[in-house]
């Protein structure tokens, strides 16, 4: 009895999945790429099925052979079912911020290399193929797309340099899109028999890419907003991510006429950037693991199914076809080599991308393998009824032969090339760290093993044998340790700061497991911690400090909220921004304390006391900046500060309580029923804490106005009316409040913080209780100098017309302001005389503020 119909298709897929599961361990044992082995298996299945159908002795297997040989899947199904999954997961797995530094390199490999390969291969085949130039170029576009799965898999297996893997995976994101776009243009020309308009084609190409990026990012962000509003439903969140690539791909490809591949990649990159701060850490890990599994199935199936088509595509192959395949292969290799070796140095010289070492270039040229997408595009030509038989025959055979050569020659030798070029070895900094970490780590392992062995009652002989082996290893690593000589102080400081920034990111993700914390706040903190990693990696201590300063500056959203509050008296946006800033500063403060302990307990023993002192100074500066910003807010919003800190601590306690109950269940000390009941109680208390706290930004403004010396003697009723019409401004160090020779539109009353203006070789400072711009406004003059903040400042912004009306009605305000202005100028003059008498140059305070940054930069 033969199995037919849908049952036969499902059975065939199930058997192919069994084959795929067996290929992975076999490939690892044979040290062969999984992709190469899958391709060989697919070709073998296709050839065997064809042989069974032709044989009259095995009629019982005809149904299975026919199902495999004529599997109901065409080129459109290949691209529509498998491509969105492969592209989306590739984008999701990429470290976007690290890839951003390689943008020019990736674009060169993904777009320029495809275009050059298309032209070179097409031009090389044209004199010999007996086909039109457009047909030869069509073949060039089909074989121009590279398949990164085999290459990246080999790189990961043998531990190749991470940058090499990143470049290959980054290229893959846009490589398919560029090749498919060129393929579509050329195929339309072949089927319609019309010439290609170059200008129109370029515009369409750019519009397709640009529009796809906009749509992909927009739908990706919309999906993230929907996920944030699902209330933590894991199944619903995962389902949305599964739907996203297909929605984006089909909308762009079928309705908008944009590149579906680029849109899918853009949506995946959007999730990669914002996913860690949107999903809970455990959900994000599960999501990535799920997509890795999906891509393993999809990638393996597409390779086997496409490879099964190879015998059918090679029917009618001649010796001359072998010559054409060889010509195309050599032309493709030369084209890729010309781009990699010819254009990458130009990008590096123009400082558009970091330099790429010669071994990397060699590997990238040889690793340009072709795979399932090339076979699917070739199949699309052979299936097209409007393509002539000779053209379809030419495309099918040459493209298939090209794929086989790259897989069987390049794919099988790439591993040995990477090893020969020593790209599988650790970087110098990691090699130096290896001995340092092992020498200190093994000593701790020996001590802990000894303690545990005593507790468990192991015999002294057994203990001495095992612990002695560990101690000998520690001694060998200590003797081989070249850490102090291999790395200079600057490199060790950079390494320490990268480690600190990565540790901070880990702590933030751990805190994010606590329910009730703002997703936007965690997104901001995570993004800034990743910026610190990049800053430290590129510019050392200066880059790290600069990223830290950027974290504490007001965001664009915060500045817009302040503008709405100041001009239109719309308070809610600023209220939300202030509550988020408060929460961000509290969490950053908690993390900074943990980082200081981590540095002393773990980093300092590894990197040495001198490096520990330098890093401690950087972390100390970070903590002081956080303290200044936080204390300024605590000073005037004490009640909210206490409520917020109490709430965060309560949330942490509930998280620890939940973990304790999980541990009791794992130790079988409570039943599952009791465990569920305990967690329900925790859940109820967590829900009560999720209600947002109310933040009143205008709390106590009237009382603060009364504390200013200039307003003493002004009736309470007048101050009450003034308080209703003024706005708040929260400024970071270095912000400009008034510009030199600028018109005074606002008078700033300093509630907390410090500002400074440089006038006539003097530095005049404004502290709590001072009015900035009042004297110039009263005297109807422009600002005599540029006023900048020196610290985090809390300011009351009084419109100039209101202030002048107050001065006219209450002359005591003017007298007080004039007296304070004269006293401040006299004090500044005395200070400059003292400094001049000591024959030391007078250094403005604003320069002192920047001195720390300049010291870091000059080191």
How does this model look, in words?
With 859 residues, the protein is mainly alpha-helical. It is 76% helix and 4% strand. The chain has 34 helices and eight strands. The protein has a four-stranded antiparallel sheet with strand order 1-8-3-6. A four-stranded antiparallel sheet has the order 2-7-4-5. A hairpin with a 2-residue loop joins strand 4 and strand 5 (762-766). Helix 7 (133-144) packs parallel to helix 18. The protein is globular, with a radius of gyration of 34 Å. Keywords: Cell membrane, Ion transport, Membrane, Sodium, Sodium transport, Transmembrane, Transmembrane helix, Transport. It is found in: Cell membrane.
What is the overall shape? globular
* Strand arrangement in the largest pleated sheet: 1-8-3-6
Oligomeric category: single chain
End-to-end span in angstroms? Answer: 81 Å
Which residues sit in consecutive blocks of at least 5 with pLDDT less than 50?
Answer: 833-859
β-sheet strand percentage: under 5%
Bin the helical content: over 70%
Characterize the biggest β-sheet: 4 strands, antiparallel
Structural classification? mainly alpha
Q: Could you tell me the number of beta strands?
A: 8
Taking Cα atoms only, what radius of gyration do you get, to the nearest Å? 34 Å
Q: Averaged pLDDT, please? A: 81
Summed up, the helix count is: 34
């Amino acid at each position: 009895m033969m199995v037919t119909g849908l049952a036969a298709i499902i059975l065939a897929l199930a058997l192919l999945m069994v084959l795929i599961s067996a290929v992975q361990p076999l490939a690892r044992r044979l040290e062969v790429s999984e992709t190469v082995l899958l391709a060989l298996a697919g070709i073998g299945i296709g050839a065997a099925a064809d042989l069974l159908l032709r044989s009259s002795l095995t009629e019982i297997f005809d149904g299975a052979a026919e199902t495999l040989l004529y599997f109901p899947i065409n080129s459109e199904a290949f691209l529509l079912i498998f491509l969105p999954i492969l592209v989306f997961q590739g984008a999701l797995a990429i470290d976007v911020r690290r890839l951003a530094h390689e943008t020019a390199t990736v674009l060169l490999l993904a777009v320029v290399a495809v275009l050059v390969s298309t032209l070179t291969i097409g031009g090389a085949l044209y004199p010999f193929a007996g086909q039109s130039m457009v047909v030869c170029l069509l073949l060039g576009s089909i074989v121009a797309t590279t398949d990164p799965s085999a290459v990246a898999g080999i790189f990961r297996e043998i531990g190749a340099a991470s940058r090499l893997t990143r470049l290959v995976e980054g290229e893959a994101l846009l490589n398919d899109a560029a090749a498919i776009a060129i393929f579509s243009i050329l195929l339309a020309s072949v089927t319609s028999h019309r010439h290609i308009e170059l200008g129109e084609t370029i515009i369409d190409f750019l519009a397709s890419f640009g529009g796809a990026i906009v749509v992909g990012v927009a739908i990706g962000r919309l999906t993230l907003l929907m996920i944030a509003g699902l209330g933590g439903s894991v199944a619903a969140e995962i389902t949305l991510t599964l739907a996203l690539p297909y929605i984006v791909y089909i909308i762009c490809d079928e309705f908008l006429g944009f590149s579906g591949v680029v849109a899918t990649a853009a949506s995946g990159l959007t999730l990669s950037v914002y996913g860690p701060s949107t999903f809970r850490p455990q959900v994000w890990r599960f999501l990535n693991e799920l997509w890795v599994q999906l891509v393993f199935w999809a990638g393996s199936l597409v390779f086997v199914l496409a490879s099964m088509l190879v015998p059918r595509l090679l029917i009618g192959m001649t010796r001359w076809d072998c010559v054409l395949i060889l010509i195309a292969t050599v032309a493709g290799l030369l084209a890729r080599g010309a781009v990699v070796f010819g254009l990458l140095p130009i990008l590096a010289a123009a400082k558009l991308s970091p330099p790429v070492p010669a071994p990397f270039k060699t590997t990238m040229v040889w690793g340009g393998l072709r795979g399932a997408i090339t076979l699917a595009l070739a199949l699309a030509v052979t299936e097209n009824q409007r393509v002539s038989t000779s053209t379809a025959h030419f495309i099918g055979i040459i493209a298939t032969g090209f794929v086989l050569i790259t897989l069987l020659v390049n794919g099988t030798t790439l591993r040995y090339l990477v090893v020969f070029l020593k790209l599988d070895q650790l970087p110098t900094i990691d090699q130096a760290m290896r001995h340092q970490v092992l020498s200190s780590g093994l000593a701790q392992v020996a001590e802990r093993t000894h303690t545990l062995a005593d507790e468990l009652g192991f015999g002294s002989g057994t203990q001495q044998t095992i612990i002695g082996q560990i101690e000998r290893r520690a001694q060998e690593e200590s003797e081989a340790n070249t850490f102090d000589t291999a790395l200079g102080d600057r490199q060790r400081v950079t390494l320490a700061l990268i480690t600190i920034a990565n540790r901070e990111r880990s702590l933030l993700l751990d805190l994010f497991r606590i329910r009730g914390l703002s997703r936007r706040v965690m997104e901001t903190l995570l993004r800034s911690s990743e910026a610190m990693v990049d800053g430290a990696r590129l510019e050392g201590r200066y880059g790290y400090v600069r990223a830290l300063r950027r974290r504490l500056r007001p965001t664009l959203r915060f500045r817009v909220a302040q503008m709405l509050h100041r001009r239109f008296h719309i308070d809610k946006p600023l209220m939300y921004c202030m509550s988020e800033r408060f929460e961000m500063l509290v969490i950053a403060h908690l993390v900074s304390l943990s980082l200081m302990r981590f540095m002393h307990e773990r980093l300092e023993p590894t990197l040495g006391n001198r490096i520990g002192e330098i890093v401690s100074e950087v972390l100390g500066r970070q903590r002081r900046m956080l303290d200044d910003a936080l204390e300024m807010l605590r000073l005037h919003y004490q009640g909210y500060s206490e409520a917020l800190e109490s709430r965060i601590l309560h949330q942490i306690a509930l998280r620890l309580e939940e973990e304790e109950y999980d541990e009791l269940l794992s130790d079988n000390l409570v039943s599952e029923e009791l465990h569920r009941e305990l967690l329900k109680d925790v859940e109820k208390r967590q829900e009560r804490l999720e209600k947002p706290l109310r933040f009143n930004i205008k709390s106590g403004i009237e009382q603060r106005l009364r504390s200013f010396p200039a307003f003493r003697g002004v009736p309470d009723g007048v101050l009450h009316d003034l308080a209703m019409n003024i706005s708040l401004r929260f400024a970071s160090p270095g912000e400009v409040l008034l510009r030199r020779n600028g018109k005074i539109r606002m008078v700033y009353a300093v509630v907390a913080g410090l500002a400074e203006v440089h006038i006539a070789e003097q530095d005049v400072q404004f502290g709590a209780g001072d009015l900035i711009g009042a004297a110039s406004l009263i005297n109807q003059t422009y600002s005599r100098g540029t006023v900048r903040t020196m610290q985090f400042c809390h300011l009351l912004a009084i419109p100039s017309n209101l202030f002048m009306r107050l001065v006219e009605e209450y002359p005591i305000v003017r007298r007080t302001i004039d007296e304070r202005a004269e006293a401040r100028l006299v004090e500044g003059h005395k200070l400059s005389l003292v400094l001049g008498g000591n024959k030391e140059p007078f250094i403005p305070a604003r320069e002192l503020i920047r001195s720390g940054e300049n010291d870091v930069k000059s080191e």
